[in-house]
User: What shape does this take?
Amino acid sequence: MKYLITAFSGPLLAISVALLVFLSGAQDAFAFQKVPAWLQQAAALPHPSYDAKVPAVVLHRETAITLDNSGKQVKVERTAIKVLTREGRREAGGAAFYLSKFNSVREMEGWMIAPGGTVKSYGKKDVIDRISDPDDIYDEGRIKILDASGDAEVGSVFGFTSTVEDRPLFFQDKWIFQDEHPTLISRYSVEVPDGWTATSITFNRSEVAPSVRGNVYTWELRGLPAIPKETMGPSFVNVAPRVAVNYFPAAGGDTNKIFPNWTEVSRWTTGLFDPQVVVDDAVAIKAREITANAKTEFEKIRAIGTFVQNLQYISIDIGVGYGNGMKPRPSDLVLNRGYGDCKDKANLMRALLRSLKIEAFPVAIYSGDAEFVRIEWPSPGQFNHCIIAIKVSSETLGPTVVDHPDLGRLLIFDATDPFTPVGDLPEVLQGSYGMIAAGEKGGLFKMPVTPAEANRLERTIEMAINSQGSITGKVGERTFG
Assistant: This one.
């Protein structure tokens, strides 16, 4: 070894080192050339300095959709994110959602550009395919995941792209320009067939008008700051700018996928729910059995509500791409099997009540954020949950009874939540907008907010001090709502 070092000392050693550096740089340059142009451009973008708590910056965020006259859709997504902190390494990954037997993820690739310029590529062998909701017994919704966080380091840039073929249930879509991370470029585009047009509504900021070139509509924002997390603060989806987009087919096209107003959404949803309300002998017998000791209208509703709440919640989503994700199973089948999801439970409760001459309507709602649903955009795509509105007489009173201008007095109830009894409503649903499916009489309606006296904590304390100064006592608490 000593001989070798001596032999390469002086000018010859310098030439050798330079040659190695050159070859290493050439290899890095060659590897970088394998990175797609959009990612090369994103990786070269300068960005501001951010607070030390910001884990990553999104350099490029894009969705490009192409529609054809048959309603088929190809969606290409591209994302580039730069890791700023050790915590930000977990952001180096991507995912693509699809429905088995209905649409497919055609392509999925990723690239990690290290701070020194070396590149690692990711392909099919690195993709994990799993059910989208692990809590479901069976779900056609699946997700392909590419996790590169183990290879990330501070200063790395991770790029990801996916191509998904789909046939959308509606000619509507929504796009949120950012998550909580700062975002340099965010772009959504849709290319429609000849004769089609596209319109949009902007939420959480001033109107974002699309640029139009031929049949391509593009919405773009740049330089979006981070959205800091705040204790008890609003969800980032109620802060981050987003657009709701409608595609309008040529005259004579499929108008069943267009909703100009909430009445049309009600009609469409009613057509899914009403045929599934089956009142057979088994349903009628069960309703009489459940309410055998009930004397008032409210007691009957409460008895049936408690029974339905106690049924096992199981979600088995089949035929989602054809609208079955919003269509309940027949009520007699749900009763016979003894389980169902939110829409199944709501429709079973409707059947049980109908056998007692009490009418009720399904209510589509968003669970988890009372501010999420927006009046300006009539679309079934704004909801993720189903509850029930029960038509009651003047004898039934309570904080969740509302007056509807066309349907009369309605008692609002969540037949899925096992902890909220009839007469109350989960806090996450109070004050939100729900879509009552009642044909031409239905539509969007604001849910009740229970008064303070219905949501209270009563605490009583009984204390005693003996002659030695010791204190003994009893504390009792009662919660309401």
User: Anything to note?
Assistant: The CA atoms of residues 13 and 460 lie 87 Å apart. The chain has eight helices and 26 strands. Confidence is low (pLDDT under 50) at residues 1-30. Helices lie at 2-7, 11-33, 37-43, 262-273, 281-290, 297-309, 331-337, 342-354.
